[in-house]
Design a protein that fits this description.
Distance between the termini of chain A: 27 Å
CATH class of chain A: Alpha Beta
Number of strands of chain A: 14
Number of helices of chain A: 9
Structural class of chain A: alpha+beta
Oligomer: homodimer
Helix content of chain A: 25-40%
CATH architecture of chain A: 4-Layer Sandwich
Number of domains of chain A: 1
CATH topology of chain A: Glutamine Phosphoribosylpyrophosphate, subunit 1, domain 1
């Protein structure tokens, strides 16, 4: 038995076998596995949980299939406003960036905010300024252009509607986010989340991803959590910290806490989505109340699992 | 006995009798009492807790003594970036604006986001655009100019330092925030918080005030909370929701939960500040671990209390 573990997600929503071509399904699975392996390698080499979740999320951000970094969706003026957060369980240090343009890997900006500033959260142009001063990689608009995301934006551009990610057919909902949780050899937990938000989004909308306690949380005493779902409902439910509190104050197991929050509390308010969770003992949960969730894990026993559907 | 109650704060920090002139002390007390009375009148006239906290916070925002709205501090380029949030306990609906310039009453923008949008949180220029489209009052730079705040900025402008609010002498810390909690005749709770943040702040820094679960939270099943303190530490501690969870999951009283969080958990990590809290039974707590906190309340018995020092 190793004492390291990692889990990640690439978004949740209406994801069913008949909606993905075999080639696309294969590409998603390969993308998830590549990120999983990259994060796990960090842990194997005695790297920290913080470095491992950053590496896993960077790998997902660099993959245009996922709505984060390179694959970030277009906002209502054809730009990209990205959100990311990271938190480490050893000292509850955290960093978050919201509504920030032009950053190649928003999770690395969140990490720099955590490690190099006295702040936890920075927004928009101010966050970009901090990124530039701290050597965080910047990309131009061309980098963030992907044909698929552009078409998704064209489909609803000019309307007042926005989409949680991409809608291939009416009635579909996808929550495009990526995130990871890890446990390292030192017994430390960490969590990170990154997203491009909603296609055609306006008004500088921010979801749960960059909000410590809502979309992202880590505490060595309990668990590490990264969420993906209908951000507004996850925000109002303070989802990630709720799971931590159920463990800390009600002595629930990680599984019991996750089940209560994802399958009961969130369902009651229409909060569709899911999350990846890892406790200080190395237990992993990846619950979701949507049709599917891109997800992957390597457990304490070293067994790898990469899945999309239920 | 009435079944209504309200409490509010105007910031915490190094606030001691020898640091305030009698005239200034009187002005602070009058400002707190005016906001308290304005909010209480809403409750007396059978208004909602949501309307009451909005009214109390608007009154504090309009008072240049407090770091919110008209009295908001200057950021590092001489502008004003304000944060506000509101949440109602009946349905856990919430609205928040962060890093937004030019808004006369940021709490009313947060309320409009809650009531008129599908979102919870909006940032910066996007939030301003939403405000303009929804008839929220905008003011020019002259409105936000106050001699006191300008001098505070001049004192540290050009340096890399920032200040939590205003520092009259070295070693002083003030956490300039305003906030209110209320319980209405229908048994509904609400909380609201508003701030101009830190003098000379850079990088679009956001504190705990607009973060649901950290600086602001309300749930009819437990309590309503508005915080003021060192935002980064309050954010990482998810302070407001922590108190709610201690009540919900550990069956703590409001007082026990507040005491644990403010006098133990926050103190251990150096999290200076305080909060106002009101539970569904009408109990009020106003704990702070700093030297003073501008605060006021009207309890279920109708007794009014307006205080600054311990």
């Amino acid at each position: 038995m190793e004492k390291i573990a990692i889990a990640l997600h690439g978004g949740a929503g209406t994801i069913a076998p008949h909606l993905l071509t075999p080639a696309l399904e294969k590409a998603y699975l390969a993308g998830l596995e590549a990120a999983l392996d990259a994060g796990y390698q960090v842990l194997k080499q005695n790297g920290s949980a913080t470095e491992a979740v950053a590496m896993a999320v960077v790998t997902l951000e660099d993959n245009p299939l996922f709505n984060a970094g390179k694959g970030a969706v277009f906002n209502h003026i054809g730009g990209h406003e990205m959100d990311a957060a990271i938190m480490q369980g050893i000292d509850l240090k955290a960093g978050a960036a919201c509504g920030v343009p032009s950053i190649k890997n928003p999770v690395l900006l969140a990490k720099a905010i955590m490690e190099k500033s006295e702040h936890v959260m920075m927004a928009s142009q101010g966050a970009l300024e901090f990124a530039k001063q701290n050597g965080i990689a910047i990309e131009d608009d061309a980098y963030f252009y992907t044909e698929q995301r552009y078409q998704q934006w064209q489909d609803i551009k000019g309307s007042d509607s926005f989409q949680l990610d991409h809608t291939e057919q009416k009635g579909e909902k996808k929550f495009g986010t990526v995130g990871a949780v890890a446990l390292d050899y030192h017994g430390n937990l960490a969590a990170a989340t990154s997203t491009g938000g909603m296609t055609n989004k306006k008004y500088g909308r921010i979801g749960d991803s960059p909000v410590i306690g809502a979309g992202t949380y880590a505490n060595n005493a309990t668990c590490a959590i990264s969420c993906t779902g209908h951000g507004e409902l996850f925000l109002r439910s303070v989802v990630a910290y709720d799971i931590s509190c159920l463990m800390a104050y009600k002595n629930m197991t990680l599984k019991a806490a996750c089940d209560l929050v994802v399958y009961d509390k969130l369902v009651k308010i229409g909060g569709e989505g899911g999350l990846v969770a890892l406790d200080h003992l190395g237990n992993i949960e990846m619950p979701f109340n949507s049709e599917g969730m891109y997800r992957a894990k390597i457990s304490l026993d070293g067994v790898k699992e990469v899945k999309i559907y239920k």
